[in-house]
Amino acid sequence: MKILIEQYGYDKDRLSIILDPHYFTEMRDGKAKIPYVGYFLSRKIPDTVFILPKVFIIYGKAFGEYELEEIIDFDNLKQEHKANVFSLSVWIYRAIKLYFQRKDKASDEAEIMQNVVSHQGPSNETMIDIVLSLLKFDKEHKSLFTYITRLKHSGQNKIHWQKTISKTKALIQNGVPVYLNPHTKQKDINFDEELIVLFYSVLNYLAQEFKFNVRPAFGYELLKPENIQSMIESGKGVRVLRQNRRKYFTDEMVQLWNLLFTFFEQSQYVQSKDNQDEQAMLVREFNLVFEDMIDSLIGDNNLDHRLKKHKDGKIIDHIYRDNSLIEDKKQIYFIGDSKYYKDDNDIGPDSIYKQFTYAKNVIQYNIDFFNQDPEAFERTNLQYRDNTTEGYNITPNFFIRGHLQAEQLNNYSNANLQLEKMIDGKSHRISYHFENRLFDRDTLILQTYNINFLFVLACYVLGAGERTQEIRKIFRENIKKVLQEQYDFYAMTPREEINAEEFIKDNFQQLLGKVYTPYDIPDTQQYFALALDKDKKYNDENEYILNLVDTGFYCKQCSLGQDPRTVLPTVVQPERAIQPVSLLTTHHIQRYPTQHFLIGCYHSKEQLDWIMGKNDKGTNLYNVRLKKRGSDVRDGALSPTYLASLDVKFVILYEYNAENKGYRVFHVHHHATLDEERMKKALYPNPQGNYLCYVFDEEVQLSTRISLHDIITDAKLLPDYIDGTPIFETGDELMKYIV
After folding, report:
1. How far is CA 700 from CA 156, 580, 622, 623, in A?
2. How far apart are CA 139 and CA 646, in angstroms?
């Protein structure tokens, strides 16, 4: 067996002895390098050749210990390393074969398939496949072999005296009969045992070639390796197995027969003079395999393809959804790029620039989605922008590189995800337009991680399972840690009698990119996040911001992921009493000719308290039921399309069946769509489906009185009107009901 490593400059003459010229590239000074990784059965030697990834070059030596020319001959490895190196070679082979199968089934990218060289044989299996199948059968059927051995040997040498006396002659010696050829209980050929002997003889033959350990064969006398070789060359192995094919009846022994027949048939084909093919399973660009390995570990293949393949032609290596960094109720996309080999030049300015561009493209994709259909985007549970502060969520962005140390060579279970310093010595790189604005759209953070190559390899071949969430959690926690090393994070809540939206609007230029509302807390109290860069050059700016914020908010330091309610006081905004008419802001109906007035009712004092935000219920809003697609049997449900066409500026509120008692008018600040879960959090009783909620900012008065009785009476004449359903009138239409 031969061991080579990709991209290393070998002596060309020595390489030519092992491989044909089309498998390597000539260099200067009589050197040549191999661009492939994988398995190769050379007809020139003949022998098995494994070409390993260059990640196994540690500190300039193979596996951190051997000169690369030295280990071309496998026998030069230390005895304690041989089994381990064979195991590594087989894992690489299995990964390449899995990559070939995955791309063959799921990809139409011909250029990727051109990187795979696959020559197998008549059974579509290489010798490595057959070796692995035989080892797997041995591992899974230990108890079967033990049972057959014990069963067939139990009483086997016991003499059958009745047959011995009746069918053989005895010699009389000293008056005592002596039987020289007694009948025993078993004289027939045991075909099961014969197959077992052949099986272990083949394993012993392969163990000599591939240097793996094989367990003892229960005391059977095995065929020597040269006998197995002779059976291959002469074709005797195939002939013997064909003759005995119908003498095995149990499923296990039939399976074993098939494995051995495949071995002899394939071996005979490989070693025959007529065979002009060379067995191979090679990949030219192993970085594509490693990319697929990482993607199978952390990526998400169920996302919209436009998130991975961008309009500008760029393709992201890895993208998946996970909880946001500030709190864990909303989610964000994590974006990664993989480099399978640690090279000082592989993460240069070009790679960094491209990675920042990937993040900007993903952000724009989600903002486009939000602008086109805010309600649908709300249902995704993603959060990219906050309209109140115009701040942006933090988009995690990282490189991940395969890494291997000598002490990890036999450790497939250790994730060992380590944050690496960037070229400039920092743990991360930041791209920005404006300094000290973490919550700005153009502020992007990039990190680099090293991960145990063997761990990724094992997860790829065996399946990642729960390790996916483990790795994603490590990414998230590391990014949070790095952010908290550079930024001070605060939680804020408005002081009594402070309107947070107005405060932020009045101080927008100072707070832009520094404040953000990430918290999804079912509370009438508002919470904001503030992030300030720790760099000393921002000390004066940060002190000014903290003093400014203090005039309108309670503000306390709050680490990422911490509930702001644990550091901030509970603030009870003073209840807004019904003001004398003369003190309410007056609005003239005629100034809103095309805008709409919503005339809505409430059924009880409890419902009014919820609408007005009393007793810690509600949030000063009025809700309208939304129709689902198709039929909707809920009374009062209205079409979302219809409501979206209305520009509602005021809500006129009255008690059901008591419109003659009067009404109250409220100015609408904004509206939002809330689902059942959000309505439950707002303590709305028995929510069903989605609701459009009109949020008030103040109670006002109209310059003239209107007749609600006449409005409702006219509405009842409409064929589709349901009693109690909200009524929408424009300013011009409302002028008809002035009294």
Report:
1. 106, 10, 15, 19
2. 72
Which residue in 321, 395, 399 sits closest to 361, CA to CA? Answer: 395
- Mean pLDDT, residues 433-462 taken together: 90
User: Cβ distance 62 to 55 under 8 Å?
Assistant: no
Count, residues in the chain: 739
CA distance 430 to 704: 58
**Per-residue confidence (pLDDT) for residue 157, from 0 to 100:** 55
- Give helix 286-298 / helix 467-486 axis angle, nearest 10°: 90
Task: Quote the tokens at residue 44.
Answer: 């020139």
Sequence-distant (6+) residues with CB within 8 A of 253 are 192, 195
Instruction: In whole angstroms, give the CA distance from residue 208 to residue 185.
Output: 38
Is 580 exposed, middle or buried, given 0-12, 13-18 or 19+ CB atoms closer than 10 A?
Answer: exposed
Question: What whole-number percentage of the chain has pLDDT above 90?
Answer: 23
Tokens read off for 303: 């996302």
- Residue 538 class from Cβ within 10 Å (0-12 exposed, 13-18 middle, 19+ buried)? middle
What is the distance of C-alpha 706 from the center of its chain?
60
The Cα 415–Cα 191 span in angstroms is 48
Are 445 and 430 in contact, with CB atoms under 8 Å apart?
yes
Please report the DSSP string for 574-629 in residue order: PP-----GGGSEEE-GGG-SSSEEEEEEE-SHHHHHHHHTGGG---SEEEEEBPPS
- Quick check: pTM over 0.90? no
The owner of tokens 């027939």 is 188
Q: Is the peptide bond preceding residue 46 cis, with omega within 30 degrees of 0?
A: yes
- Transcribe 375-418 into DSSP letters: HHHHHTTB--EETTTTEE---EEEEEEEE--GGGTT-SS----E
Average pLDDT, the chain: 82
In order of their start, the domains of the chain are 2-121+279-283 (no CATH), 286-486 (no CATH), 488-566 (3.30.70), 581-737 (no CATH)
pLDDT at 534: 95
Q: How many helices (H) and strands (E) does the chain have?
A: 23, 31
Question: Are the beta carbons of 729 and 600 closer than 8 angstroms?
Answer: no
Q: What is the 3-state secondary structure (H, E, C) of 97-132?
A: HHHHHHHHHHCCCHHHHCCEEEECCCCCCCHHHHHH
pLDDT of residue 355: 87
Name the DSSP class of 222: P
Query: How far does CA 705 lie from the centroid of its chain?
Result: 61
Model confidence at 330: pLDDT above 80: yes
Block residue for tokens 């940060």: 542
707 token code pair? 């007749």
- Range list of H helices, 380-531: 453-462, 467-486, 500-506, 508-511
Report how far apart, in Å, the C-alpha atoms of 720 and of each of 370, 638, 655, 717 are.
Answer: 33, 11, 22, 9
Say how far residue 410 (Cα) sits from the centre of its chain. 26
718 exposed, middle or buried (CB, 10 Å; 0-12, 13-18, 19+)?
exposed
Range 303-311, long-range pairs (CB < 8 A, 24+ positions): 306/365, 307/333, 307/362, 307/365, 310/358, 310/361, 310/365, 311/361
